[in-house]
Amino acid sequence: MRIYHDLDDFNPVPGAVVTSGTFDGVHVGHQKILSRLHEIAERNKGETVVITFWPHPRLVLYPDADLKLLNTFEEKAELIKEQGVHHLLRIPFTKEFSQLSSEEFITKILVDKIGTKKLVIGYDHHFGKNREGSFEQLKLNSPKYGFDVEEISRQDVDHVAVSSTKIRKALETADLETATHLLGRPYSISGRVIKGDKLGRLIGYPTANIEIDSTHKLVPADGIYAVTVLHEHAAYKGMLYIGYRPTVDGSKRNIEVNIFNFAKEIYGESLSIKFHQFIRGDLRFNDLEELKAQMKKDEERSIQLLNNH
Which of 172, 196, 211, 274 is a good FRET partner for 70, with 20 to 30 A between their CA atoms? Predict the structure, then answer.
């Protein structure tokens, strides 16, 4: 898959089958659209093009809203690549770009710049200034624009409409089961291993302290999770803690992972962590011995769940 970071870098491709959107999470609803894109392109010997916007439009239009995202751009690009897309066009989203009318978006970008032959959009998709553009408008004017348009019906999972917002809310309440179901895979975070106070070593549970790649990346609710940890293309089982470490009066939110059967020094290296099961919420213990006893139970529970998984 080729990635373009500016409109000027892109040239029209043959038989362009196109979709556009923020694609935060690349969840099962997005996957349905991308699958349809691939199907049409194969049938017509065309090439697939995904247009996405970065930063996320809401971060630009509502900077005080403190929106947390399911993906960094790099994560999103990798997930889109896994869906077999040929071209990913990242349009820098600015306040100036937000003033582009739906008509201008269609003519200047979809028609002139990309050479769209077929446009596939999700249910209730809107675009252009004040979200004025719609499927109905596109359908009505498609002969004038020179491309066909298709709308994918609302994607439901167990009668629940899939959305990035629902997934965010599930992760913020430690409802991993719902988040995993709607994403179609475990939620993941990536980050660099930084030095901590080595308290975990004192109680027999050394942890890697994780610094997340992006300030806008959503970190799930505080507590203990059963996880798998990816390091240098190898996967390890582990348990991860998110919270303020109330037992030792911690002052900042930490992300620490205890990797089972792992003894390497990995300061400064990157880890990717997949969340499989929520074990328990964050708790304050009377002393470190009580904390250690609980961590033993957490470890046993995590191993049991990961083995069953």
Answer: 196
**Phi, psi at residue 82, to the nearest 5°?**
-60, -20
> 155: pLDDT confidence band, cut at 50, 70 and 90?
low
SS3 per residue for 258-292:
EECCCCCCCCCCEEEEEEEEEEECCCCCCCHHHHH
CB 25 within 8 A of CB 183: yes
C-alpha distances in angstroms, 277 versus 106, 142, 162, 171, 187? 44, 47, 20, 11, 10
Amino acid at 50: V
Q: Which 3 state secondary structure label does DSSP give 90? A: strand
Q: Distances in Å between the alpha carbon of 147 and those of 7, 14, 107, 117, 214?
A: 20, 13, 11, 5, 38
pLDDT digits (tens, 9 = 90+) for 158-191: 545 789 999 999 999 999 999 999 999 999 999 9
d(C-alpha 207, C-alpha 194), whole Å: 10
DSSP state of 127: B
* Residue 73 near residue 108, CB atoms below 8 Å: no
Does the pTM surpass 0.85? The reply is yes
Query: What's the rounded Cα separation, in Å, for the pair 261 and 233?
Result: 16
Q: Which ranges in 63-186 belong to alpha helices (H)?
A: 73-82, 95-98, 102-104, 135-145, 164-172, 176-183
Query: 121: helix, coil or strand?
Result: strand
Q: How far apart are CA 142 and CA 145, in angstroms?
A: 5
Tokens 């997934």 belong to which residue? 167
Torsion of CA 242, 246, 250, 256, to 10 degrees: -30
Q: Are strands 188-194 and 270-280 parallel, antiparallel or unpaired?
A: antiparallel
74-110: per-residue pLDDT in tens?
999 999 999 999 999 999 999 999 899 988 989 999 9
The number of beta carbons lying within 10 Å of the beta carbon of residue 158 is 7
